[in-house]
Amino acid sequence: MDTAAKAIILEQSGKNQGYRDADIRGFWPEGGVCLPGSPDVLESGVCMKAVCKRVAVEGVDVIFSRDAGRYVCDYTYYLSLHHGKGCAALIHVPPLWRGLPASLLGRALKVVIQEMLEEVGKPKHKAQFEENSTMVLPAKGN
After folding, report:
1. Residue 131 bears catalytic tag
2. What are the Cα distances from residue 60, in Å, to 2, 55, 82, 133?
3. Calpha distance 102→57 (Å, rounded)
4. pLDDT for 78-123, tens place per residue?
5. Which percentage of the chain shows pLDDT scores above 90?
6. The domain 4-132: what is its CATH number?
7. For position 120, what pLDDT does the model report?
8. What is the DSSP-derived secondary structure letter of residue 7?
9. Which among 11, 34, 52, 115 is annotated as catalytic?
10. Catalytic residue among 43, 82, 92, 125
11. Exposure pattern of 99-108 as b/e (b: 16+ CB <10 Å)?
């Protein structure tokens, strides 16, 4: 198994063009474009490179990427970045295997997500994420 297949991969950007393969149901964006007239690349407001540098979980690699692969993941990520105005994250999660049990993967994902939240809480990002996030309030009586 190659290193990337055993790593958590944090994607920084989504691409608008270059989709050549249909998904399992046969969907393929017309002309290979996610959203015609939109920017070629959209970036997450979370600095994934900074998150990767700060995350350390023994036995799990966390890798920074700028190419989610022009398939379902990248398509969905681009749409999320577009509609969320940069307030989105894509984490590629590796399959479980003998060297990466669920307990270790879960712990690593918890650390990654906590670091992402720390990044979002920084003053330079806070206003952007507060403006574009959905607040969930508990129902009365709960």
Report:
1. no
2. 13, 10, 30, 30
3. 14
4. 999 999 999 999 999 999 999 999 999 999 999 999 999 998 887 7
5. 75
6. 3.40.630.20
7. 85
8. E
9. 11
10. 92
11. ebeeeebeeb
Our CA dihedral for 114, 119, 120, 126, rounded to 10 degrees, sits at: 140
CA distances from 18 to 29, 37, 69, 71, 88 (A): 10, 14, 9, 9, 21
Instruction: Tell the residue number behind the tokens 């690593």, with chain if given.
Output: 108
pLDDT (tens digit, 9 = 90+) per residue, 49-61? 999 999 999 999 9
43 has catalytic annotation: no
Cα-Cα end-to-end distance for the chain: 47
Q: Which two tokens mark 26?
A: 């046969």
Task: In whole angstroms, give the CA distance from residue 87 to residue 94.
Answer: 23
Choosing from 43, 73, 82, 125, which is the catalytic residue? 73
- Let me know if 73 is a catalytic residue: yes
The rounded distance, in Å, linking the Cα atoms of 12 and 64 is 7
